[in-house]
């Protein structure tokens, strides 16, 4: 796969290990004959370390032999999170520390969770781009605050905290971007 074809969320092989591309920075040449440079920030899915990859536009990386399976959250226990494949009913366990960032947006019954299966072992999960969660706790809104663009911290039903407009109240359901951790709007 050429560097120009690699997108955020793509899984590639770097130094013999699968890596999930998290960010991409493209630098165009300023001189004639210069090559466009692609800088990727990736996460090694086995060791969980960040990896920086720099490629010219004509270079590429190999696609990882990965399976993505749709799963549902079964239960969590100290140190482990357990998921079940929605088609085969196969169960996958993963260390809670490895998916701590993702779990702050996983609520009961969330659809669209994908397990990343490498060598028949679950090494991570992918969440839908947006999730709808209820506001569990926030400061009360003051009448007239909707005219300004000010925000306040709100705690969601899963325990995650995001910045949201001041006019929102407890119990309202909002959409949150799971990649940027930003408020998108009311659900």
Quick recap of the structure?
With 187 residues, this protein is mostly beta strands.
Descriptive report:
By secondary structure, this protein is mainly β. Helix content is about 0%, strand content about 50%. The chain has one helix spanning about 100-105, and strands at about 10-15, 15-25, 35-45, 50-55, 60-65, 65-75, 80-85, 90-95, 115-120, 120-125, 130-135, 150-155, 160-165, 175, 180-185. Strands 4-3-2-1-5 form a five-stranded antiparallel beta sheet, with no helix packed on it. Strand 3 (about 35-45) and strand 4 (about 50-55) form a beta hairpin. It starts with 10 loop residues before the first strand and ends with a strand. The model has no long low-confidence stretch (mean pLDDT about 85).
Structure classification? mainly beta
CATH architecture verdict of the largest domain: Roll
Weakly predicted, low-confidence segments: none
Helical segment count:
1
Give the amount of beta strand, in percent: over 45%
Count of the domains: 3
Write the CATH fold name of the largest domain: SH3 type barrels
Helix content: under 10%
Strand order across the biggest sheet? 4-3-2-1-5
Mean pLDDT: 86
Oligomeric category: single chain
Query: How large, in whole angstroms, is the Cα Rg?
Result: 20 Å
CATH class (first level) name of the largest domain: Mainly Beta
- The biggest beta sheet, please? 5 strands, antiparallel
Number of strands: 15
Our measurement of the CA-to-CA distance between the termini, rounded to an integer number of angstroms, reads 37 Å
Q: What's the overall geometry?
A: flat
SSE pattern, N- to C-terminal: EEEEEEEEHEEEEEEE
Organism: Pseudobythopirellula maris
Domain Elongation factor P C-terminal: 131-186
GO molecular function, one term: translation elongation factor activity
Keywords: Elongation factor, Protein biosynthesis
């Amino acid at each position: 796969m050429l560097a120009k074809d690699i997108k955020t969320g793509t899984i590639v092989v770097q130094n013999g290990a699968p890596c999930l591309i998290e960010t991409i920075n493209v630098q165009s040449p300023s001189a004639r004959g210069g090559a466009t440079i692609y800088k990727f920030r990736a996460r090694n899915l086995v060791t969980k370390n960040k990896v920086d990859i720099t490629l010219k536009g004509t270079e590429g990386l190999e696609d990882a032999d990965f399976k993505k399976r749709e799963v549902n959250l079964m239960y969590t226990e100290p140190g482990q999170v357990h998921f079940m494949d929605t088609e085969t009913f196969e169960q996958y366990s993963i260390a809670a520390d490895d998916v701590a960032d993702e779990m702050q947006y996983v609520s009961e019954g969330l659809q669209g969770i994908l397990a990343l299966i490498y060598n028949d072992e679950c090494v991570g999960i992918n969440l839908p781009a947006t999730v709808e969660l209820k506001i569990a706790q926030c400061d009360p809104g003051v009448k007239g605050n909707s005219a300004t663009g000010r925000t306040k911290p709100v705690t969601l039903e899963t325990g995650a905290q995001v910045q949201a407009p001041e006019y929102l109240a407890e119990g309202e359901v909002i959409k949150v971007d799971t990649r940027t951790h930003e408020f998108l709007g009311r659900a």
